[in-house]
Amino acid sequence: MRATAVFADRTADIAAPDPSRKVIRAFVYVLDPTPEQVEALRSHCGAQRFAYNWALSQVKANLDQRAAERSYGVPEAELTPAMSWSAYSLRKHWNTVKDDIAVNPETRQPWWPENSKEAYSSGIANCAAALSNWSDTRSGKRKGSMGFPRFKSKRAALSCRFTTDAFGLVTDGGDRRHVKLPRIGAIRTCESTRKLARKTIAGSARIRSATLSYRRGRWQVSFSVETTLPARALPPTGAAAVADRGVGGSLVGVDVGVKHLAVLSTGEMIENPKHARKQAKKLRRLEHRASRRVGPDRRTGQQPSRRWQRTQDQIRAVHTRIAAGRCDHLHKLTTRLVRDFDTVVVEGLNIAGMTRSGGAYKRGLNRALHDAGLAEIRRQLAYKTEWTGTGLHVADRWYPSSKTCSNCQVVKAKLP
């Protein structure tokens, strides 16, 4: 009961949000494209990468030129004019030169009309955001350290974002198994889209953008949806919550860890399912099998064998199962905490710092920390408590919770 006694006086300033305000939610659907559509999807993602690298090369050349002129002693007023790296300026410059740079070297015909203009706008916008973050880090507006953006290779993750043109759900004729994207058309989904379709038809949701990506061997589309929180989503608070839901109290403290995924202040201990550790033996066997197959070789141009590709598909399936199981378990845990308690108290942990050093001596602990997904618990609690109107309090990582007595609140100097 320590967490309830320690943090009970710190939750008075937490107010419930307005039940009528809008929130941004993501609806993700796995796609089942045809071979022709797969080529179109890859083409759009490649166009996004091409536009990103082009915009970055323009800005980098301008910065290098100005740096070289400064090294020669050229006065600041006589330097090459600085290039604006805003998304609007870069996109405007792209429209003036795309007929000269996005062309087929053999036929000398421009190939950029084959893809939607959103593919190029997405890459330019991503480059502008990366440059802005780098600039803010150097000036101190953004915390942390960040190097200059790097060019994307062909092995980078495939992704493309659509914000305009015709995209969304296919609702003609009561169809609930297709989504539409610009230039690509209607693509079949592996699951029904009726949940989002009902909201859009009723006018309670509006699709803002669509992000196409290739994750773990599957194409998927994520819709960013602006929806209104219904008033019935807000649970009762205070004594009414205890009486209606039958919980032991309206405040709970959650201590996350590796052995037990979560230890509640009510005395309940939730075991860590260890999804990655349970699949480690099978994954190690498949990776050993893949090492014996004939894989691709970029130096000699050797193509991978079918057995190597089949083994890689099996490895991706195992990783997908691990990620899906972890995500499902964490969602069920955080949803139960939000529904059963009015206020949830968690500790602010520096997960990146906990897994940064140690090398081979700490490899097992780092692997266990990543498998538990401790930071994901706090992230899910943050937006779920905001959606449901409950409170979330993040205790400072240096707060002496273990040294504080739950009865007299006296803080011990040492804890042997």
Kindly report the spatial arrangement of strands forming the biggest sheet: 10-9-8-11-12
Q: Specify the biggest β-sheet.
A: 5 strands, mixed
**Number of individual domains:** 3
H/E series: HEHHHEEEEHEEHEEEHHHEHHHE
- Choose one word for the global shape: globular
In terms of per-residue confidence, which ranges show pLDDT below 50 for 5 or more consecutive residues? 1-17, 236-248
* Number of E-state strands: 12
Taken as a percent bin, the fraction of beta residues is 15-25%
Structural class: alpha+beta
Q: What percentage of residues falls in helices of 4 or more residues?
A: 40-55%
- Average per-residue pLDDT, rounded, comes to 87
Instruction: Calculate Rg over CA atoms.
Output: 26 Å
Q: Please report the number of helical segments.
A: 12
N→C terminal distance: 21 Å
